[in-house]
DNA sequence: GTGAAAGCGCTAACAA
DNA sequence: TTGTTAGCGCTTTCAC
């Protein structure tokens, strides 16, 4: 007996998507297996063109949509990649990580499951749990600024990659920006203009960025045969106020080239310098870091800087997770921070008459 | 045999999720049904405390994780809410929409499925298709700036809400910022300081923001009994350059209060004004729009502005989708843009001796 | 109190 | 060439 409904047992809710493979099969007068084959375009199964066509027509007419849940149940795995972020909002940057991850995931047939945790432990556990229950292919654990981050225990139940952060014990795969190369690149932009005395306004915040960029700065000097002068390195709050307040010290140093910890500091520095009637880059050349475009691309003059590769971080994270980029189980991959040359490092060359 | 490590390098490989309800049942010596009951804490089923406890112990010991796919298959629906965005990256704002949507969804037990389409049609269709196949509860269709947007056909196969955009035919539910109120609020901030001649640097871009903010500006003037003078409304490119270039015109107008279309324009204006030795707010008071914090909170002086409620947009979209906030099938809900008072509208009061 | 069993929509052997 | 059938992991009704 297989009568489904002639009783008063109407489906409670007119289910939006009632069309199943079963319906297709019945409507086309074939078995579900056959329907499944043509729905999935299985070419290795020999079916009459006639049948194939007929079934396909029914599929189109009824507007059949395969049920991903069912497929996943059968296949035992899903096409989900989880992305847990500590702060989607705090910074424009986080958005770029999501963007890169999403693009790359999509490219390989995966979908992003996003969770924001505001750095809150319970939210984090819950997010990971939910992802695990959804049989995610793996999880990207990301932070909005580059730092060490403890790996939540639950993460280890699946594949995961740290993005923009790394396990303090260095026992997990991670993708982070190459701060050292970035610091060096920034400094080189100034050195390339002939400057020999380059000040560095570093951040007061203890973080890989602080250490790495300083190391890069030193490396650049060394490569140029310039002695490192600790007096040229200042610490400042990493924002506009910090940059503005550093003006005095910079002027006292008598340098005419400054590498700022980030674009916001550079913005503050612009302000302070201008208030004293100094011109950029003629009196003082400046490079920033981050390439936070709302700022860097629109300062006057536009700011030369070095790009924090957030998009790439997300994309590379996915590639590492899916095994497209090979990586040791404890790999710490550094992504380059490319230079973005604008007008704060060298004045536009005057047109020759 | 249970030797975990006596080999040299055996990184604990993530246990493929073998633990099913079936395993629990077997290990606890009960049926899957019973296991299911205790796993879900069904209190309306009569089970011995002893049994309940025993099964629970097994569940904990084996680290059982329910399979969301299977649950969803049975229940016929998922706990997913799709969010398709035309540009996660282009602006920091989009991130806030995601953030708001994610928080609100989470609050109701839903998870966000995110797709970025870069405004590209095929990508959009594909994204929606994927969401539909995953049996999403509904879809949030969002844009990074407030505008009219055609509703992709496929969207209509499920519940959906437009976020930060609306169907040109006004036949769908939508949540957008209240540009008119925003424009009025911004203008009022200036009027409240006693200014009677307020210039408005509007954008050249044809969009709801242009029309709405102007309307709000006019409404504010009217409410204050001030005649609208079209000469006080300028058009400018909506970024720093536009603001900077508008300085001449502003000065020619002889006003001492300016409402800028957005914070970036205000930033450019600051620059131009300062170059001419003018002080803000003493010589000229300024309000922006958007509250793009990297800029507004760190200009000198910090910029008074009006907030584009992106977070609320995302959250309200979810609430409308889930029916938590009632809404007509063609409701166009406007979310208020609250004022953010900082120091560009009035100088800090000097301390009285 | 607890278990057996019927599916949810789909895939993939294996038959026919 | 196509249909039958056994699950995938879980919920839930209905017997025992």
TrEMBL record, chains A, B:
The keyword Transcription applies. Pfam families: LacI, Peripla_BP_1. Keywords: DNA-binding, Repressor, Transcription, Transcription regulation. One of its GO terms (molecular function) is transcription cis-regulatory region binding. Residues 19-75 form the HTH lacI-type domain. It comes from the Bacteria. Transmembrane segments: none annotated. Gene3D superfamilies: 3.40.50.2300, lambda repressor-like DNA-binding domains. The keyword DNA-binding applies. InterPro entries: HTH_LacI, Lambda_DNA-bd_dom_sf, Peripla_BP/Lac1_sug-bd_dom, Peripla_BP_I. PANTHER family: HTH-TYPE TRANSCRIPTIONAL REPRESSOR PURR-RELATED, LACI-RELATED TRANSCRIPTIONAL REPRESSOR. This is Alanine racemase. It comes from Pseudolysinimonas yzui.
């Amino acid at each position: 007996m297989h009568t489904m409904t002639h009783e008063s047992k109407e489906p409670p809710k007119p289910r939006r998507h009632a069309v199943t493979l079963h319906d297709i099969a019945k409507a086309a007068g074939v078995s579900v297996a056959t329907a499944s084959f043509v729905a999935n375009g299985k070419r290795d199964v020999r079916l009459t063109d006639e049948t194939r066509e007929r079934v396909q027509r029914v599929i189109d007419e009824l507007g059949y949509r395969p049920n991903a849940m069912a497929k996943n149940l059968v296949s035992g795995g899903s096409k989900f990649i989880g992305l847990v972020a500590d702060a989607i909002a705090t910074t424009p940057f986080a958005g770029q990580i999501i963007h890169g991850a999403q693009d790359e995931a999509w490219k390989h047939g995966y979908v992003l499951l996003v969770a924001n945790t505001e750095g809150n432990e319970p939210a984090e556990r819950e997010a990971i749990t939910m992802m695990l229950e959804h049989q995610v292919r793996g999880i990207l654990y990301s932070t909005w600024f580059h730092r060490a981050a403890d790996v939540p225990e639950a993460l280890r139940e699946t594949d995961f990659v740290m993005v923009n952060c790394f396990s303090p014990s260095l026992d997990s795969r991670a993708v982070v920006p190459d701060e050292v190369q970035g610091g060096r690149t920034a400094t080189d932009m100034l050195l390339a203009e002939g400057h020999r005395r380059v000040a560095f306004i570093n951040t007061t915040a203890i973080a890989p960025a602080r250490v790495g960029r300083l190391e890069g700065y030193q490396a650049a000097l060394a490569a140029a045969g310039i002695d490192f002068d600790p007096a040229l390195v200042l610490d400042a709050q990493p924002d506009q106020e910090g940059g503005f307040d550093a003006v005095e010290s910079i002027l006292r140093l008598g340098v005419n080239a400054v590498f700022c910890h980030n674009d916001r500091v550079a913005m503050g520095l612009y302000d302070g310098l201008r208030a004293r009637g100094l011109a950029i880059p003629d009196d003082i050349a400046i490079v920033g870091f981050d390439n936070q475009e709302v700022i860097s691309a629109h300062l006057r003059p536009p700011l030369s800087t070095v790009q924090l590769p957030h998009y790439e971080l997300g994309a590379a994270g996915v590639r590492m997770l899916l095994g497209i980029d090979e990586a040791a189980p404890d790999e710490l991959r550094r992504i380059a921070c490319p230079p973005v040359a604008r007008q704060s490092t060298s004045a536009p060359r005057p047109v020759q008459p």
